[in-house]
Amino acid sequence: MSDAAADQREPLRIVVGTKNPAKLRAAEQACIQMFPDRTIAVTGVAVPSNVRDQPLSDEECITGATNRAKAALAAHPDSHFALGIEGGAQKVGERWFESGWTVVLHPDGRTGVGSSGRYELSPKIMARLLAGTELADVVDDISGMKDVRSTQGAMGLVTNGLVPRDTAYVHGIMFAFGPFVAKAALW
Prior knowledge:
Elements: H1 3-9, E1 12-16, H2 21-34, E2 40-44, H3 58-75, E3 81-92, E4 95-105, E5 111-115, E6 119-121, H4 123-130, H5 135-143, H6 153-158, H7 165-176, H8 178-181
Parallel strand pairs: 1-2, 1-3
Antiparallel strand pairs: 3-4, 4-5, 4-6
Helix pairs in contact: 2-7
């Protein structure tokens, strides 16, 4: 059997710097679509982002996602790729928007960065975020639900269930994999 054939049978090991079920589902869904000929093995590991619990800029989200990917790879150095996913808010003009940033790290040091779509945060929510409360806690409090971050997330609530958190993060993960999967000579 050739090395390429053996490589196709070996599960593609993806480690994600989180134990959040919605983020792990997103990583698995994205990788299954990007690598349809491979068995995907996603492992979550709890690692720190080393940024605020509620990031308030794209830069802070990317830093947090990078820190998570690096720590995940350090915890599972036999992985083919490590992912860090960090959600946060960004002010654009006078409005605030939420999105999830993904950093993909290859063991050789190459990286890719991508973002999910954005949705607007209401002034009621932003007042609490700016006062230091994490979005997940605000959403749980306002909705009366528990642990929304692990299920549909705020994204799902904003879209009345049409775009749950895992679905919303899939595209950002795929964008972050661009340097590794683009068939055109874009990279």
